[in-house]
Amino acid sequence: METESEPYVRLATLRGLHQVVADLNTARSLADTLQTVADGIVTGLGYELSAVNLVRPDGDLVVAAVAGSAGAEALMAGRVGSRVSWERRLAMADQWGALRFIPYTEGWVLDNDDVPQWHTAGPAPRFPDEWHPMDRLFAPMYTAGAAGGELLGVISVDKPRNGRRPGAWGREALQMYAFQAAIAISNARLRANMQRALVRLEREQQALRASEESFRQAFEYAPSGMAIAEMGGDQHGRLHRTNDALCRLLGRSASQMRRYSFSDLVHPEDIGTLLRTSAEGGRAELRLARRDGTYVWVSLRNSVVADAADGPRFLLTHVEDIEERKRHELQLAHRASHDSLTGLPNSAELRARLSSRLCGRAPGNEPHAAAVAAPYGCLDGFAEVEGVEGPVAAALYGQEGSYAHGFGSEGGPDHAPDCGPDYAPDEFGCGTHDGAYPGHVHAIAPAEDEPDDGTKGLAVLFCDLDGFKAINDRFGHHTGDAVLIEVARRLSNGVREGDTVARLGGDEFVVLADGLTQADAEDLAVRLRSAILPPIRVDGRAVRVGASFGIGWAGCGMSADEVLHSADQRMYVEKRSRAKAGRRAG
Fold it and tell me: Which PROSITE patterns match (predicted)?
């Protein structure tokens, strides 16, 4: 009888409980822990059969471990019982402290539910505490170790070796074991989750290292320039890292590049373009300084990269050398706006420059018109610099630069911040105006039928060569072309730096010179005619041409065609008068 050997039972139970609890902490995985829990019931607590039912993420309970019977293990392991059925069992059972007991007299209603079980029929008990094969004893396990926590699983036991229902001490031992088993299972789950997290973290780190290595190789060995610049803080814009291609392009080492930002290297005229495009997805075409002091055209493409969720942000910049493309574009633009034979601005470029100097409102037609002519020699629009000049270049590149003509300088239409609703760009980007744009200085045509009062204006000298047709017919187009080239050179050498010499076509040339009085314009025509008169040698042969000049004046309120037509008519008047004078002299 248990009561007769109670001290012995207690000592043996404590020894077995101590051993199986110690074994719980030696399991290496969650599966091992669950099996150890089931085995401990059989080896340490005196039951012939035990099963561990573990709560799954969906709430149902799966038989995770079985001990004591190979047949029971084959029948029950891996099978699932619904949460509803388990809650029904625990609710109808007698409470033995934290344990739940369903006697065989009441358990028959559970024979057909979906909870996996291993029970056999047997005779009625011979004495009150005898264990019946249909008795059911459960030890619920909770995450917090007590009934107040979340259900972790249920240990079910069967067939006590002494054939009796457990007494108070046996119940306490099973309850204590379930408490320790819940802790061991929770720890095993935590270790398993940590191991999975560590494996996942290692994989992510490996992927990150692989990604970083791929980026490093793509960055370092990219055929075009790459740079990483800092964003924000005191070092905003500072180049943090550059690849070999960018270092070769700019002729600087990587350590030297780290001393600069792009704003230190950009051409002064392109700084505004750089600042406008220093944003995610920003693009720009501008010039960067090489170590030798020259500039190279590049295309910048920017993207913002975050180092971490709230960490520092960097600007990743792709730098592509577009010098050849720019040179080709500039050559095409130059051909479109310049005469292929002489290299002078052509008719379209001449009209564009002239139109950009004029507005559609004549001086004096508005109360606040600035009826002041530009100072002598300050027609900014006619200053040629190396490369493509004029509004064609401005229309192509939309910015100032060594390739843009001086016509887009301050005060000209390319710099007008707001030309008003009446401003309409023409095909050369110059535009016409019904009213003057801000900062515009009106061009005033001097009164030609009155004595020279010293008023300065924009003179238009229309030049037609005399005797050119005869040279062309007699000696051929080769000689004629050589004459035109030489005349263009002499005309260009005879004007100021800010003036324009253009070829309209054939043997017709036009000179635009701002800031001249009537006397100045007449003197300029005499000097240019004198420069053309000396013989021109072509293939060992000396030929001579003359020139007739007509002087017109451009003023706001006039169109470019009206100005050129006026100068053309005056040239023919001058040509006829010189012809009559020659006949009278003969």
Answer: GGDEF (PS50887), PAC (PS50113), PAS (PS50112)
Task: For 508, list phi and psi in degrees, rounded to 5.
Answer: -105, 130
Residues 6 or more apart from 531 whose CB is under 8 A from it? 490, 491, 493, 494
- Any bridge partners for residue 550, and if so which? 462
Cα 573 to Cα 581: distance, rounded to the nearest angstrom:
12
Q: Where are the beta strands (DSSP E) in 194-340?
A: 225-231, 239-242, 283-289, 295-306, 313-321
Q: Is the Cβ–Cβ distance between 489 and 555 less than 8 Å?
A: no
HSE, side-chain direction, 13 A CA sphere, residue 256 = 11
Please name the residues in contact with 295: beta carbons below 8 A apart, sequence gap of 6 or more.
267, 287, 288, 289, 402
Q: Would you give the distance in Å from CA 394 to the centre of its chain?
A: 27
DSSP 130-179: BPPTT-EEEEEEETTSSTTS-EEEEEEEEEETTSB---HHHHHHHHHHHH
Residues 6+ apart with CB under 8 A from 104: 132, 133, 134, 135
Residues 443 and 559: beta-carbon distance below 8 Å: no
Which pTM does this prediction carry? 0.49
Report yes or no: 64 and 54 within 8 Å, Cβ to Cβ: yes
377 — pLDDT class (breaks 50, 70, 90): very low
Nearest CA to 249 out of 287, 303, 304 is that of: 287
Residue 297 CB coordination number (10 Å): 23
Measured between alpha carbons, how far is 2 from 564 in angstroms, rounded to an integer? Answer: 131
Alpha carbon distances (Å) from 429 to 118, 225, 393, 419: 94, 33, 9, 13
CA–CA dist 538, 362 (Å, integer): 47
Cβ–Cβ under 8 Å, residues 29 and 188: yes
CA–CA gap between residue 478 and residue 543 (Å, rounded): 13
Which residue pairs, CB below 8 angstroms and at least 24 apart, start in 100-106? 100/137, 100/138, 100/139, 100/140, 101/135, 101/136, 101/137, 101/138, 101/165, 102/135, 102/136, 102/137, 102/138, 103/132, 103/135, 104/132, 104/133, 104/134, 104/135
Q: What residues have CB less than 8 Å from 418, skipping those under 6 apart?
A: 437, 438
Annotate 182-230 with DSSP letters as a single string: HHHHHHHHHHHHHHHHHHHHHHHHHHHHHHHHHHHHHHHT-SSEEEEEE
First and final C-alpha spacing in the chain: 164
Contacts (Cβ under 8 Å, ≥6 apart) of 117: 76, 110, 136, 156
What's phi and psi for 122, nearest 5 deg? -160, 170
- Evaluate whether 81 touches 60 at the Cβ level (below 8 Å): yes
Phi, psi of 491 (to 5 degrees): -65, -40
pLDDT tens profile 157-186: 998 988 899 988 889 889 999 999 998 999
Residue 68 CA to residue 38 CA, distance in Å, equals 9
Question: What is the rounded CA–CA span in Å between residue 75 and residue 427?
Answer: 90
Tell me: the pLDDT tens digits for 386-399?
334 444 344 333 33
